[in-house]
Design brief:
Largest sheet: 6 strands, mixed
Shape: globular
Order of helices and strands: EEEHEEEEEEE
Distance between the termini: 24 Å
Strand content: 35-45%
Number of helices: 1
Number of strands: 10
Structural class: mainly beta
Strand order of the largest sheet: 1-5-6-8-9-10
Number of domains: 1
């Protein structure tokens, strides 16, 4: 049975920005030091985990991203994201932007499984990752151990393809 997960948007997602490439992360009390030298302002890793979806560096503010919903079905957590490109009928200033969306999920909102698999997907179009042919990747799986005290362990990153 699929269960919707209640989450909140982080008020200043730009503080979570990292790198120049497209990235999807699950940031926890165990791995945040891999991506940040200090905890992002307002983060509470003791009670929450964070789903981060970043478009990396883009040439104008017409590029946007947002997290639409998070659902859990057994050990699989699906994070639905919307990737928005510039409207071709509009003119945008040429300024470097880093579109990013961050969802804060209280650990108590997740059912514990070992391991949990996080899948980032875009219901409207396939997620494209460097190195894969356009249209063949429909999601990104981040998997790792989920311990009884609701702390998440080491994450492995892999993509899966629709056959």
């Amino acid at each position: 049975m699929t269960k919707p997960i209640v989450f909140g948007d982080v008020p200043n997602p730009e503080e979570w920005a990292f790198g120049d490439k497209l990235a999807y992360l699950v940031v926890t009390d165990k791995n945040w030091t891999t991506y940040y030298s200090n905890p992002p302002q307002g983060s509470d890793f003791a009670t929450c985990i964070y789903m981060v979806a970043s478009l990396g560096v883009r040439p104008n503010p017409g590029y946007r991203i947002r997290i639409l919903q998070i659902k859990q079905q057994n050990e699989r957590i699906t994070v639905s994201v919307e990737l928005m490109e510039p409207d071709p009928k509009k003119v945008y200033p040429q300024v470097i932007v880093r579109p990013i969306a961050v969802a804060e999920v209280p650990k108590g909102n997740l059912q514990p499984y070992d391991p949990l698999h996080f899948v980032f997907s875009n219901p409207n179009q396939p997620i494209r990752l460097p190195g894969l042919k356009p249209g063949v990747c429909s999601g990104l799986i981040l998997s790792g151990a989920f311990y009884p005290d609701l702390k998440i362990g080491v994450w492995r990153r892999r993509t899966y393809q629709v056959i």
